[in-house]
Specification:
two-stranded antiparallel sheet, 246 residues, 71% helix, 10 helices, mainly alpha
Amino acid sequence: MSSFSPNQLRRRLWKAGPMVLLCLLVLYGGGCGVVRFPIPSQFQPKDPHLPENELAELQQEVAKHRQELQQAVQAAANLADAHTLLALAYLNHNMYGEALKSLEMAIAIEPENEVLFYLGGLSTANFALALIPPLEQQQLLVQAERYYLRAIELLPNYSDALYALSALYLFELETPQQALPHLIHLAEIERNSSRAHILLGRAYVTIGQLELALQHYRTAEELATTDDERAELIAIQNRLRGEAGP
């Protein structure tokens, strides 16, 4: 049987990789002993045998800090809710810039809350439309797109975010092709709603596919919930048939 020096053995165990258990061979061929890692000197207790009252004090200290942590988490959640309510109040008063500021504060606390990103998209898009300089408008519209995309990333079936993003692509960014996959997804989610089919009809008209547009306007007509909506959709179809010709 071959024998190895301690250094050779360590090198072989190291090369064996993570599958090797943390177990040391005692004197080359002996049994497998338990590895004990020493506590650094600065963390060594003055008395290794703590009295019972000192252990109780440490346990109370842990319980105290756990309670403080729970209170801090709850306070942060309450603050996020307050910022969100304030943002909604600003939105109701068409104060889109102020709403966005409040939502950014809420998002900093709850960065995985899809509703906050959806509201951020609404605030940013409406704020953009209130501005006159085209460059600033475009920058804000792109920022609104990012908010909506993040909301959908967090909740893929978020129908309101899918609709808002599609409307942004169609009417503001004028990129109907980008709206199509989101609208098709929305139509699959909202099988009894006409809104996705109406926007799909508009998107296909914009890119020149009138037959597909007519199909979706026809479906929207079937799903319409009011006579006025149904009449408007019929008028759109008649107009498109006239444009398509015989």
